[in-house]
Design brief:
There is one protein chain. Helix 2 packs parallel to helix 4 and helix 8 crosses helix 10. The protein has 316 residues and is an alpha/beta fold. The mean pLDDT is 97. The chain contains ten helices and 13 strands. The protein starts with a strand and ends with a helix. The radius of gyration is 19 Å and the shape is globular. The chain folds into two domains: 199 residues, 3-Layer(aba) Sandwich (Rossmann fold), CATH 3.40.50; 95 residues, UDP-galactose 4-epimerase, domain 1 (Alpha-Beta Complex), CATH 3.90.25. The protein binds nicotinamide-adenine-dinucleotide (NAD) and uridine-diphosphate-N-acetylglucosamine. It holds the Pfam family Epimerase. This is GDP-mannose 4,6-dehydratase. Belongs to the NAD(P)-dependent epimerase/dehydratase family. InterPro entries: Epimerase_deHydtase, NAD(P)-bd_dom_sf.
Length: 316
């Protein structure tokens, strides 16, 4: 059994990963529960939950000197682009400073680490128009969130080249699935949509606010494919010191998505249109050729993923 640290492990992607890996490993989760929930984690003797701030150097030093980790997944972050535009200083502390602190602590205390996987974002590409985005495409970060993700990702990869710390980075596109918290205005759009559909089906008032005209598009990738990608990037030798797009290679506009869910659930969601959010990217689409060389093959298109997600939400 390996020891594995998952920061942000009570959040959407982190908890799914922790639950999956806990079958055969000892997992330590650090999360301040600002967005995550402890209930996202299954009850297991193999999961130790630590409530705390990942930017707290003392706490992190204590953990990294107490355990020898085989893998570290650094997923803790303020995940909302719009929130980073509202609170650039506070989000910088988590989204950038915690990464540099962690890298230094690994250098001092983790000689047996096999891999640190850093969760970067498609947001680093910004609004340059060429699509799909390859890892070597123009980088034009437009928001504090995107600047921090790019800087932190580059630090993580440079620590491999400079100090031989085994690192890799993933640039997630728009991930969706169960356990994504819908309760903030800054939550991922599909979790908010799901919340409104559930309310509508329960006969409660439900309006979805669409920022812009709904023609913006995203490469929505289902959580199970993201777990597949994380496993490959963490374990393949060829992934050392490199970053990989994680998406599907297909994009969907928000209006197309809403029409598709309306059809699956046989309802018509009420929409309210508001002005586009500042810093919002209009279109995003991944070229996934690089991660395919590691053996990645997405199994879910947006419709398959939505069907699984809807099924899990309505059978709870
Ligand atoms: P999430 O908000 O569900 O998970 C992030 C977790 O980090 C939350 O549980 C939150 O409570 C925790 N956290 C925040 N600040 C913390 C702090 N100071 N100390 C400890 N814990 C803290 O988001 P997610 O969708 O699971 O995203 C996971 C990672 O992937 C993030 O780094 C995010 O930026 C990145 N990412 C996500 C997406 C996506 O579409 N979901 C896309 C690109 C990148
Ligand atoms: C998302 C992720 C971010 C990640 C990026 C990578 C979250 C919260 N954000 O950002 O971590 O780095 O993908 O591609 O997981 N919208 C509405 N109404 C709403 C909410 C959103 O119209 O109530 C719109 C937004 O304005 C945007 C689109 O939906 O145009 C997607 O928004 P969001 O889910 O926040 O994703 P990104 O900003 O792409």
């Amino acid at each position: 059994m390996d020891n594995i640290l998952i920061t942000g492990g009570a959040g959407f992607i982190g908890s799914t990963l922790a639950n999956y890996l806990s079958k055969e490993n000892k997992i330590v989760v650090v999360d301040d529960l600002s967005m995550g929930k402890q209930e996202n984690l299954i009850s297991s003797n193999n999961i130790k939950f630590v409530k705390g701030d990942v930017a707290d150097k003392m706490l992190m030093e204590q953990l990294l000197s107490e355990y020898s980790f085989a893998y570290i997944f650094h997923l803790a972050a303020v995940a909302s682009v719009a929130d980073s535009v509202e609170r650039p200083v506070a989000t910088h502390r988590v989204n950038f400073e915690s990464v540099l602190t962690l890298l230094e602590l690994i250098r001092q205390h983790q000689p047996n680490l096999k891999r640190l996987v850093f969760s970067s974002s498609a947001a680093v590409y910004g609004d340059e128009l060429t699509l799909p985005k390859q890892e070597e495409s123009v980088i034009r970060p437009l928001t504090p969130y995107a600047v921090d993700k790019f800087a932190a990702e580059q630090y993580a990869l440079d620590y491999y080249h400079l100090y031989d710390i085994p690192t890799s980075a993933v640039r997630f596109f728009n991930v969706f699935g169960p356990n994504q918290n819908p309760n903030s205005p800054y939550s991922g759009v599909i979790s908010i949509l799901m919340d409104r559909y559930k309310k509508q089906l329960a006969g409660e008032p439900a309006v979805f606010t669409l920022f812009g005209d709904g023609s913006q598009s995203r490469d929505f990738v289902y959580i199970e494919d993201v777990i597949q990608a994380l496993m490959l990037v963490a374990t393949k030798e060829e992934a050392l010191g490199k970053q990989f797009n994680v998406g599907t290679g297909n994009s969907t506009t928000l209006l197309e998505l809403i029409q598709a869910i309306d059809k699956i659930l046989n309802v018509k969601l009420e929409l309210k249109f508001e002005e586009e959010r500042s810093g919002d990217i209009h279109d995003s689409l991944a070229d996934i050729s690089k991660i395919k060389t590691l053996g990645y093959q997405p199994k879910f298109d947006i419709l398959d993923g939505m069907k699984c997600y809807i099924e899990s939400e309505f059978t709870d």
